[in-house]
Batch of 4 targets.
Target 1
Amino acid sequence: MAQYKVPVLPGDGIGPEIIVEGKKVIDAAGEKFGFDVDWIEYPHGADHYLETGELISEDSLKELSNYEAIYLGSIGDDRIEPGVLEKGILLAARFYFDQYINLRPIKLLEGVWCPIKDKTPKDVDFVVVRENTEDFYIGIGGRAKTGMSKDLLEVNRTLYNAKFGLDIETDSEEIAYQIGMISKEGTQRVMNYSFDLAETREKHVSSVDKANVLSDIYGFWREEFNTIAANHPDVKTDFNFVDAITMWFVKNPEWFDVVVTPNMFGDIITDLGAMVQGGLGLAPGGNINPNGTSMFEPIHGSAPKYKGQNKVNPIATIWAGAMLIEQLGEKEAADSIVSAIEKNILEAKVQTYDMGGSNGTSDVGDDIARILLEQ
Amino acid sequence: MAQYKVPVLPGDGIGPEIIVEGKKVIDAAGEKFGFDVDWIEYPHGADHYLETGELISEDSLKELSNYEAIYLGSIGDDRIEPGVLEKGILLAARFYFDQYINLRPIKLLEGVWCPIKDKTPKDVDFVVVRENTEDFYIGIGGRAKTGMSKDLLEVNRTLYNAKFGLDIETDSEEIAYQIGMISKEGTQRVMNYSFDLAETREKHVSSVDKANVLSDIYGFWREEFNTIAANHPDVKTDFNFVDAITMWFVKNPEWFDVVVTPNMFGDIITDLGAMVQGGLGLAPGGNINPNGTSMFEPIHGSAPKYKGQNKVNPIATIWAGAMLIEQLGEKEAADSIVSAIEKNILEAKVQTYDMGGSNGTSDVGDDIARILLEQ
Ligand SMILES: CC(C)[C@H](C(=O)O)[C@@H](O)C(=O)O
Ligand SMILES: CC(C)[C@H](C(=O)O)[C@@H](O)C(=O)O
C-alpha cells in the first residue's frame, strides 16, 4: 500500500475546520484506492506568531522541503497588521519552494448557482495559470522624503520629457513606492507550463498584461509570450489587457481555455473567476513546483468572523485536496473526489449556507466522504 | 446667451463617429437651455501620428490648457505598438493637466440588461473615484542585464532575509522592472474629493488596495485614508483588497457608494463596473482637475474593428458629454441629457446591437437629441 507523508498547515480563522474535512475526504479516498496518508501538523499562523513571535523559520521551511505536497488551510488574522502573516508565511512558502505555478481551475460545476446570467457549466471551464514568484509580489518598496523622492521624480520627469516632450512637475516631499520585477526565466517557465497544459486541452492560451501602460514590465512579458508561442504553432493565442479581461470573464467565459497571467493580475482575476464559478467556497488552487514542494489551498481567505462556527463551505479545500493527491500520483482517487463533490452538489441535500443549504462544514465533509466510498 | 469653447479630440477607431453624436446631443441641449458651444477640433491620434510623427506637442497642450473641458473620443490603433498613443496622448493629457480625479459613475439605468443575476437599478448605483496621476501609471521602469538585476535581487534578498529570515536565490540575468509611486499630496487630494462627494451621497467611502502584499505603496495609501477619514466622522468607511472587491462588485454592488482607488486598480475595477452597469457602451468617465482643464470620454476603447460602420453605441460618449457640460456649469442641461438617455433606453425603439437593437450609432444620437428637445 502506497504511503504518503503530507505536512498540513491549518492556519488561521476557518482554516482548521476546513482542513479537517479535506483530510477526512482524502483519508476516505485512501481507504478506497489503497493508499495511506500520514498527516504531519504544523502550527504556523496567527496564534503561533502571537505566542512565539515566529512566522515560519528557515528550519521549518527546510524540513517542509522534504515533502512533495503541503496542505494549507488559510492564513490571515485581524489582530495582526495586513501583510505580516500573508507575506511571512504564505508568500514566504511560495517563494522559498519556488512554486512558480499558481494553478486555479475556473469550472462551474453542474448544479452550482452561477451569479452571471445565461452561463452554464459548458461555458465556464478554463484554467488560470498565475505566475507565483515574481512581479509586484517580490516585496521591494519603501518610503522616501526629499532625497529619494527627488530622484524618482527626476526619472519620471526625464522619461516623460524625453518621450513626450512634456515637462511634468511634481514636488511632493513624501512618497511611497513599490517595485515589480519579472525575469526571463521566471516568465518563460510559467509560459512553457501554460502551453504544455493547453496542448492537453483546447489548445488556446490567453495572456494577460497591461503592456499599454506598464510597458516596461509587461512589454517584456509579451515578448517572452511570443517567443514561447512560436514553439507551439498549433496553439491559438491572444493578448488581453487586465482591465478588459475582467469584462470577458463575465461576458464570455466560454472564450477561455488556459489563461496565463503575471502574479498580481492573477490574484485579482482569479477572485473574479471564483465568483463566476459560483463563489469562493468552491475555488481551489495549487502552488506548484513541478520538481519540488507544492502546496494546495482553497483560494479563499481565513474568514475570521466565521471561525469555529462549523458554517463555511469546505468544498474548495476538499477540491484542493484532490489536486494534492493528483500531484502525488493518485489520479484516479483525485477524479473520484471531484466526482463525489459533483454528486454532493447535484443531490443538493447536504449543503452549507452559501449554497442555499443549512448544513454545517463537517456535514458536507461527511457527505462527500460517504458518496466517495459508495460510488 | 452663454458661449463655451470646447476642444474636441475625436481620436482613433470609432472615436470620430461617437463624438459626432455627443456633439449633436450637446448642441441640442444648448438650443433648449440657451447656450452655444464652439467646438474646436484637434487631429491628435493614430493617423496624425503616422503622418507627422507627432503624438501631442507641448504647444498643443499649452493651448488646450486655456479651456475648462476637453471632449475626447478614444485613443488606440492596432497599427501602432501598444502604449505609444495611450501614453503619448491620453496619459500625457491626464498628467499634463493634472487631472487627478478619474470619476466613473457605475449606474445601472432602468431598462438596461444587467449581466448579473437578481440586480436591478437600485442595486447598482455608485461612483468610483480613481486616482489619475500617480501609482504605476508614472511610467518608470526598464530592463536590465546583470548589473541592475543583481542590485534589485540583492534588495529583494535582503528584504526577505531581514523580514522573514529566508534566503531566496534568483539568478536571472535578464529582467524587466516597473516602479509605482504615490505621494502624500496626490493621495490626500483624491481622498478629500471622495469624502466630499460621499457627504453629498450616502456617506460611505470604500477604499481599494492590496496592502497585504504591496505593503509599501498601499500601506501608505491606507494611512492617508485614515488621516482624511478622521476629518469625516459621519462617513462610514471600509478597506477592500482589490482581488476581493471584484467579487463584491458582482455579488453585492448595492454595498458601495463612493469607491476610492489607486490608479491601476481603478483601471481594472471600472471595466468590471462597466460590465455590471450593462456594458462598456454605457460607461462614461471624467478626468477632472477641479481648478484646471478637465477631459471627458467614454471609458471604452477605440474598437478598431467597428470603425466607420455606424454600429457602436454612442451612449457612453453622450453621457460623458453630460458630465462635461455639468462641469461647465450647465447642470440642468446635463440632467436633461441623462434623462433623455434613460428615455431612449426605456422606449427600446432605437438601439444599437449591443443593447439588442438594430439601429446605427447616428440613429441613437438623433433619437436622444429628439427626446431631449421634446421633453
Ligand atoms: C492572502 C494573499 C497574500 C494571497 C495573494 O495575494 O496571493 C491571496 O489573495 C491569494 O490569492 O492567494
Ligand atoms: C487606454 C488606457 C491607457 C486607459 C487606462 O489604462 O487608463 C484606459 O484603459 C482607461 O481606463 O481609460
Target 2
Amino acid sequence: MISPADDLPAGDRPAVAARSEGRHRVVIVGGGFGGLEAVTGLAGTPVSITLIDRRNHHLFQPLLYQVATASLAPSEIAWPIRYLVRGRPEVTTMLANVVGVDANARRVLLDDGRALPYDTLILATGARHAYFGHDEWETFAPGLKTLEDATTVRRRILLAFEAAESVTDPRRRAALLTFVIIGAGPTGVELAGTIAELARVTLPPDFRNIDTRTARVILIEAGPRVLAGFAENLSAYAHRSLERLGVEVELNQPVSECSSDRVVFGGRGVEARTIIWAAGVRASPAAEWLGAPADRAGRIMVLPDLTVPGRPEIFAIGDTVTIAGPDGHPVPGIAPAAKQQGRYVARVIKSRLRGDTTPHPFRYRHAGSLATIGKRLAVIDFGRFKLRGALAWWIWGFAHIYFLIGLRNRLSVVLNWLWIHTRDQRSARLITRGQQSADRSPPE
Amino acid sequence: MISPADDLPAGDRPAVAARSEGRHRVVIVGGGFGGLEAVTGLAGTPVSITLIDRRNHHLFQPLLYQVATASLAPSEIAWPIRYLVRGRPEVTTMLANVVGVDANARRVLLDDGRALPYDTLILATGARHAYFGHDEWETFAPGLKTLEDATTVRRRILLAFEAAESVTDPRRRAALLTFVIIGAGPTGVELAGTIAELARVTLPPDFRNIDTRTARVILIEAGPRVLAGFAENLSAYAHRSLERLGVEVELNQPVSECSSDRVVFGGRGVEARTIIWAAGVRASPAAEWLGAPADRAGRIMVLPDLTVPGRPEIFAIGDTVTIAGPDGHPVPGIAPAAKQQGRYVARVIKSRLRGDTTPHPFRYRHAGSLATIGKRLAVIDFGRFKLRGALAWWIWGFAHIYFLIGLRNRLSVVLNWLWIHTRDQRSARLITRGQQSADRSPPE
C-alpha cells in the first residue's frame, strides 16, 4: 500500500491539502455501493468530496462467487474507482488506508501518518467475514469479500481437483474431492450450486484418473433452513434444488472445528481439503474509531438520520451500521440497502447546506431478495410476489446484468454466461498466485 | 503446488502408473506453443501422451504485455491445458513440477519424488528472463513471462500513479512518474508504447493532483536500434513512432545498475520507481537435466532432427533449444518457431512408429515479424514484404485475434480493444495481490 509518510516531518499528523477552495468538505471512506451512491447523490452540490478506499476498485460483490468458481474474470466485476468518478472534478479519489477518526478535530487518520480534515464524514467501510471467536479458522476456511479472496478460493477449488487427479490413496483423493461450504445464505447457496455444476458438468471431460462427478459438495448451516431471509417455501425449493444438483445440505449443524483437512459439525467429522466460509460477517472497525455504540457484530447503531450518536456531522451507512427497517427487523446487509442509505445521506447533506430542516428519517424500502442455485434454478422473493425456477433465473440474470456498470462489462459477462450455459465452458479456470518473488519491493 | 509425496513410501522414486495400455508412451514437458502443437500433431497416432506443466494453463505470451498494461484480463489470454486436450482420451494432463530427467532409466523426475516413465520425451520447457549475472535486479525490474509477472507489473504501474497522486515532494513524484523499460525488442517496444498511451490518453481525466501526461517513459537498449530483428527502416520507423508517443529511446546504453528507485545506464542515473525488464531470456534448465551441450543462454544445441545429441528418444523444442535456421542465423525464440518444431517432432515420432525413415531435418520457415507500437502504429517484416503504420496495425490485430484459441476469447479481446481504442478505457485497471493471509495453507 502507499506509505509516503517518509516524505513528511515527524510530529503531529500533518493535514493533507484538500482541494476544497473554501467549499464544504465531504470525506467518504469506502468506495462500495453506499459510498459511490453518496458521491452520485451529491452531484451538483457545492461541496468538495474526497473518496478514500484502500483498494483502487469498486467491486460488484453479488457476483464475486462467480469469480471464485472460475465463471467470471475479476475485471468483469470491478472498476477503478477513479474511473467511475472521472467526470466529477470536485471528487478526489485517494488510495489509502484509514486507521482512525479524530472526531473532535474532524480529521480522518491515515496509516501513513497523515490526517484528512472534513466538515462532513461518511463512513461506508463495509464488513469482513467473522469466525465467531475462531479467527484461526480463516486460514483453513477463507471467506469471500475481496477479489483476492475470490482468486484464493478459485485456486483452492481448482488445485483440489488437480491434486485428486494425481494422488492414488483413495482416502486422500476423497478428501480432495470434498468441498465444504459453511453458511447457507445466498453466497453459500450460490457457491455450493456452482461448485456442484463445475464438478458435474464442466470438468468431467477434462480429467482422466478421477470422475469429478463423484465430488462431494456439503453445505453446512447452523440454522434450520437454507436462505433464511427468504419465504419458507422458497427455502424448501432451494433446498430441493441443491440436493438435485448433488449438494448435501446439513441443517441445524453448527461447526465446532475447522482444520486444514477436516470439518467437525454436529459431532461428525468430514475430511475435506477445501472449506469455504460464508457464515458470518463482522463490521469494519468504524465503531471502534469513534467509540460509537455497536451491536455484537461491531455495527454502529446509527440514529434514524444515519448519523453517529452525538456526532451529527458523521454519517455511517451500509454493512458497517445496523438500523431497524420499517418491519422492525434490521435492514439487511445487501447492496440495495447500502445504496438507499448513500442516496439518503446525500439528500440530508444537501438539505443542511441549503439550511433546510433535515428530511424524514431514513426509511428502507425492501425491493426483494434474489438468489440463484444453478442453471435455470433461482428464487425471487419480492414480498407478495414470489417466484422460483427458470423464469426466476432469467430475472436474476437480467437484474445482475442491469446493475453492472458499463456496456463493456455487461457484454463481457453475457458472453461468459452464454459460454457457460451453452457450452459448459468456464473461461476463468486459472490457478495463479499474485505474489511473485519479484514483488518484494513494491514501488511504494 | 501439488506435492502428494507424503502418500508415497520412502526410497526410490516410485513410477507413476501411466495409462499407456501397452502403447508407446510420449511424455511432453511444457504446455506452451511447442508442447501443445506436438500434442495436436500426434492426433490419431497409437501413443499414450502425458502432458506435464507446472501451471494449469496455456498462455498466449504475445499478448502478455497487454495484461501488464491493464488492457486485457488474464483469462482472455490463457486456457486450462486440460480443457484444450479434453477431446483426446489418450492425453493425460499433469499439473506437476519436473526437476530432472533420468535419461538412462527413461524417466522424468517430479519434485514430489515420483518418476514418470517414457518411451519418447519432448522437452518444451521454454525460457525465463535473464539478468546477465545480476539476478538481484529481478526484485527491482521484474520481467514478463507468466500471468503473475504480468499482474505484478500491472500493479506496480498502477500503484506508481496512485502514489504520485499522494506525494507532494516534486522529486519523489517525478521518480514515481518515471517508467523505465530495459530492452527494446518487441516486448519492450510494446510495453513502452502502451505505458505512454496509458499515461497520455487513458489516465489523465482520472487524476486530480498530477498530470499523468508528464510521466516519462524511457526505453533503454544496449544495441544500436530498437526491434533489432526487423529491417532497418522499420526499426527507424518504430523509433520515430515511439518518440512521437513521448517515449525517450536510449540506444547503445547497457544498464550498469538497478535498484529500487534508480537505473544507471551509459554513466547516467535516472530515478525511477517502476522498472521493467525485457532484455534477455535464459532457457529452462532442461540442458542441465540432461548434461546436454548448450549455448551461453542455456539452450540445448539439438541435432537437425531436434533430438538431444546421444539421446534419439529425447526431443527438445522451442525457447529451450538453439538451432540454425536456413539463413544460418539461429531460429528466433517466437511462437511460430516453437509450433513448427512441435509439428515436426510429432511427424518424426509418427514416422518412427510406422518404421519409416526419419523425415528431412527440421527446416524453419520464417513467416514474418510483427510488432505494435501504439494505436495505429505497427511494423510488419515479412521479408520481401514490409509494412508499417495503420494497415500494419490492423494486420497485427487480426493476426493476434486469429491465433487466439476459441471464439469466446476472440470476442472478448475484440470487445476490450474496441473499448480501448474508441473510448480510451482500459478495463483491467485492477491493483490486486493474489496471496491472501487466508492462503497460508493451500489444499496440497
Target 3
Amino acid sequence: MVAPALSFTPLPGLPAVRAGDDLAGLIAAALERAGIALAGGDVLAVTQKIVSKTEGRRRALAQVTPSARAQALAAETRKDPRLVELILQESHAIIRTRPDLIIAEHRLGIVLANAGIDRSNLDGGEDEVLLLPEDPDASALRLRRALERASGVDLGVLITDSVGRAWRRGTVGLAIGTAGVAPFCDLRGRRDLGGRPLQVSEIAPADSLAAAAVLVMGEAAEATPVVLIRGASGGGDNMPARAALRPRGEDLFR
Amino acid sequence: MVAPALSFTPLPGLPAVRAGDDLAGLIAAALERAGIALAGGDVLAVTQKIVSKTEGRRRALAQVTPSARAQALAAETRKDPRLVELILQESHAIIRTRPDLIIAEHRLGIVLANAGIDRSNLDGGEDEVLLLPEDPDASALRLRRALERASGVDLGVLITDSVGRAWRRGTVGLAIGTAGVAPFCDLRGRRDLGGRPLQVSEIAPADSLAAAAVLVMGEAAEATPVVLIRGASGGGDNMPARAALRPRGEDLFR
C-alpha cells in the first residue's frame, strides 16, 4: 500500500476566540489535547475568520456613518449603506457591481466580493461584520514563529479565505496570508517527459493547498477553523501571499 | 491522534498511454500492483493529458492549415499560426489576447489560455499538441463506471486540468470533467454558529479537490497522472463539471 503524499486533518476542540486571544497558544493547546505532535514541514491552514476575530477586526454597523458615495453605491447594489461604507474603506477600487454584488480590489490587492467582509459566524447578530486581518502575511508569520517556538520544528502557515471566481460557480479557498509555504513556484528550466521546457511555468502551491483545506474546514456551524496539512513541500520561505498578486500591468480583466 | 479527513495518494507505475488504450484497465492494474484496494467513496483524479492521449486527441501541427483569421491572430499574439488555428477550432470565443497569450472560451464553456491546448509531455517533439478531451464529463463517467465494475465499490472520478487565474500568479488544478463528485454544492438553508443563514451559499468541491490533486501530480518529468483522493464527501451523483460554469448572464468579466 502506497502512503498518502498529502493529508488534511481538521483540528478538533479549538474554542471560540475573542479579540486579544493568543491564537498560537490556543492552537498549540488544541493540538496537544488532540494528541497531535507537529513534525517538520507541517503546514497549518487557519481561516481568516479566527485570525480577524483575535485581531479585533469586528465592526458594529451601528457605528458606521455611510458617506454619500457609499449611499449611492448601496442604492445601486441594494446593499446596506453602512456595509458599503466599510467595503469602500477596505478597498483600493471597485471593479464590478450588480444588484447584491460588489467586487472590489481589497487594499491588500486581492480582488473579491464585498472586499472580504464577512457576516457569518459572528455572535453579535445582524449588526456585526468582520473585516479581513490588517496584514494576513504578517499574521501568518507571527503564527509561524510562535508555533515553531512551541513545537521546536519548522512549520508553514496559511491564512485562508473563501472566494468566488469570475467564470465558475461556487467558492474555493485561497491563501491570503502565507509564511513558509510558496504562494507561487517558478518551474521554468524544468523539463517535461519529452525533454522540452515545461509549458506551465508557474504553479500556485499555497492556493492549491488552501482550496482543499477550506473544503475540509467546512462552512456551516460544525466548521473547524484550523486544518493540519501534512506532506506539502513547503518552500518559498517567508515569501508573502501578496507576491502571488498578478502585477497590475498584466491584468486583462479589470 | 486524529485521523486525516482527506488524503491524496499518487498512483505509481502507470505506463505511458497511447490512443485506443483502455485507461480504466491500466489504472485498475496499476492500483493492484501498488496494493491499493479502492473503498467506497474514493475519488480518482486523472489528468486530462492521459485521457486526451487515450482518446486520440493529439494533433500534428504540420497537418494544420491556418485560416486568414488564425494568421491575423497569430501575428498579433506572436504565436504559431497552426496552433492558433487549433485554438480557434476548439473555441466559442476569444476573450482576451496579448503577445504570447490567447484566453479563449473553450467550446466546453471553460475560459482558459490557449483553449487548453497543451504542448508538454508529448514525445512527438515540437510539432505535436494535445487537445482537451472531446467531452471530459463523458470521459469521467466512462472511467467511473469501468472502475466501479472492476472494484465493486462506489467511486468518483475527476478529470483535471491546470489553469491560470485572472488576478493571481500561478496555475491551479480545475475539474473539467466530473462523475460522482459535486462540481458545486448549494449550502443555502444551512446556518452558521450564530444561527444566521450562511453568507457563502455555494462551494466548489470538485475544483477544490482538483487543486490539491494537481499539486500532488506535479508538472515535470516525474509527474504522476492519477491521484487517489480518500475522504472526499462525494455527492453530486453524476452532476457534470459543466454545471459549474457561471451562466453567461451572470458573467461580469467577459
Target 4
Amino acid sequence: MRIALDAMGGDNAPKVNVDGALESIEEFGDVKITLVGDEAVLNKQLQRKSYDAQRLDVVHASQVVEMGEAMAMALRKKKDSSIRVAVGLVKSGKADAVVSAGHSGIAMATALTMLRKAPGVDRPAFATLMPTLTGRFLLIDAGANVDCKPLNLLQFAFMGNAYYKTVFGIPYPRVGLISNGEEDCKGNELTKETFKLLKTSGLNFIGNIEGKDLFSDHADVVVCDGFIGNTVLKTSEGLAETIFKMLKAEITKSFFAKIGYLLMKPAFRNFKKNTDYDEYGGAPLLGINGTCIISHGRSSPKAIKNAIKVANQLAGIDISKLISDNIAQSGMGIIKENEFAEN
Amino acid sequence: MRIALDAMGGDNAPKVNVDGALESIEEFGDVKITLVGDEAVLNKQLQRKSYDAQRLDVVHASQVVEMGEAMAMALRKKKDSSIRVAVGLVKSGKADAVVSAGHSGIAMATALTMLRKAPGVDRPAFATLMPTLTGRFLLIDAGANVDCKPLNLLQFAFMGNAYYKTVFGIPYPRVGLISNGEEDCKGNELTKETFKLLKTSGLNFIGNIEGKDLFSDHADVVVCDGFIGNTVLKTSEGLAETIFKMLKAEITKSFFAKIGYLLMKPAFRNFKKNTDYDEYGGAPLLGINGTCIISHGRSSPKAIKNAIKVANQLAGIDISKLISDNIAQSGMGIIKENEFAEN
C-alpha cells in the first residue's frame, strides 16, 4: 500500500516522522511512503540516510498547520498545508491511506471535508485500541463527536464491529456500551435509547459495561460518545503515568527498593511494552471514504511506524468499503426511517 | 458527633460494619455510634468484644435492602429497612450523620426523600476524593445525576468548593470542568454552557481540565455530570487494579523480578496506602439536609472506619448549612431567574 505521511505534523516533526517512515519501509516489505511537506527541509532530513528510493518519495507542501492553530483559519487559509496535500493524495488515488500526527481536529476536519463520509455513515468516529489484562479493546468514539444521538452510537458499534472482526479475525466481537452500571436499566438518556437499538441490532451486544470492567476483557468493542471516549482515553493515560511517577517516588526513598527496581526492570519493560501508546500507533478515523490514521502530537518514530502499519493494514482490507457494506447489511435504513417517522 | 451506621448494608455486612464501628470509637475520641439493623444479629456480633457501651448502641430494624434489589420495590415495601431507620435517626435529630455501605442508589434515594434537598440546591451530588501525585482532588458529581443541566453543574461547583475549602482549609480551591480539551472552546453542549456560568461565578475557576491532567494537581475541585463522574471514578479503579495485576503477572515470570518485588514491597505498600480506596472511606451526598456518607459495597472495616471519620468531620462543620449559605451568597438566584427568563 502507498501511505501519504504528513511529515510536518506533530510536536517533533519532521524528524520523528522521517525516522518513523524509514523504519517502516525497513520493517514492512509491502509499504511505500510519500513524505508530504517542505521539500528542502525533508530532503535535508533524508541526506546521508540509506533507503530504497523506489519506496520513499517526497511531495512538496509549502505550509504547515501549527499545533495550537485555530481550526477555521487553518482550514480557510492554508490550502497548501502538508495535511491537506497528504489527504489530497488519497483523494486523487495517488495514495491508499494518510497518516498525520499533527493537530488532530484539523486533520480530522480536512479528511472529512475532502474525502467525505462513507455511504451510510452519519458521523465518522475515532477508534482507539486500548490494552486489557490479556488483550485489547477498541474504544469508539474516542473523541470525534462530543454530542451524539442514539443512531450515531449504533453506527459506531457497526463500524467498530467491522474493524475488529476483520483485523483480529474474530467473527462476533463482544460489543459493550459504556454506562454508569452494568444493569440494563442503567444509563443516561442517550445510552438508554442506544441500549434498545443495540439490543435488536444483530451485533453480539453484551449490554452495559462500567468503567471498572473496561480493562478486564469483558468487551472487544466499547461504544460511547466522543466526550466520554476522550475522557476515558485521557484519564487512563493520565492515571497510568501518575501511578508510575508515584511508584518511582516511593522507590527512590529506599536503597532496597532501588535494588529491587533494578531486578524488576525487565518486568517493568515488558509491562510498558504491553501498554505503550507507541505500540498502537494511532487511531483511525472510521466512516470516511479512505483510510486516515491520526497519531498523538508527541509521537515517537516507533509510534509513526506503527501508525503506518495500521494504515497499511486498514487500507489493505479497504476499511471504508467494509464499513459501508456492514452498515448497508445492518438494516440501519429501517431504523433510520423509524427514527424519522417518530420525530 | 453521633453517627448512625447502617450495619446491614454492604457485601460483608454486618461483620465489617461492626468491626469498623469498633475501630472508630477506639480511634476517634469524639464519636458515638448507633448500629442500625437486626438487634439479635448485631448483639451476637458484639458478643465478647470489649468497648465503651456509652459510645456504641444498637437500634433495631427488621428489614435489609439487598444489593441487587429493585429500587422502587425496596423504597415502597421495606419501611423498616436498616438504611431507612438509620436515615430516620438523622431526621429526628437522634443522630448527626448517617453512613451506609449498602445499595448506593437506594441509600441515596432514601436520604433524599427523607431529609430533602438543602435550601438552594436543585440536585444533590456525590463528592469523592481521588488521589493525585502530591495530594487529592474532589470529583463532583461522582454518580448521583446522569443527565444534568448547566445550572446543576454550577451548583456542584459551589457545593464542592464549600466542602473543599472547609475540610482542607484552602480559601480558594481551584475549580476545573472536565472537558475533551483544555482550550476554552472545547466541550459538549452541556459543558460549554457550564463554562460560561463558571467563568462569572466568582469561584476560582481554572477552566477546562482534560482526563490526563486530573491526577497531576491541576484542580482541587473537578466538576462534571454524574455519568462522566461515575465513568472517571470506575475507569480509574479498574485501570489501577489492572496495572497491578499486569505487573504481578510480569513479576511471576522471573526469579529476579520476584526478589526485586520483595525488596520493593514497602514502596508498593506506601503507594497502595496513598491510593487506597479504604483510606478515603466514602462519598458524601452533598446538598441534602443532613450528613450522609455512602461507602463501597465491598468496604473493609478500615473503609467503614474512615467513612465514619468523614461523617464526623462533615457533621462537625454542618456541611449542609455551609452549602446552602454558600449558594445563597453566590447570586445563584439571579442566574436561575435569567435561565428561566431565557426558556
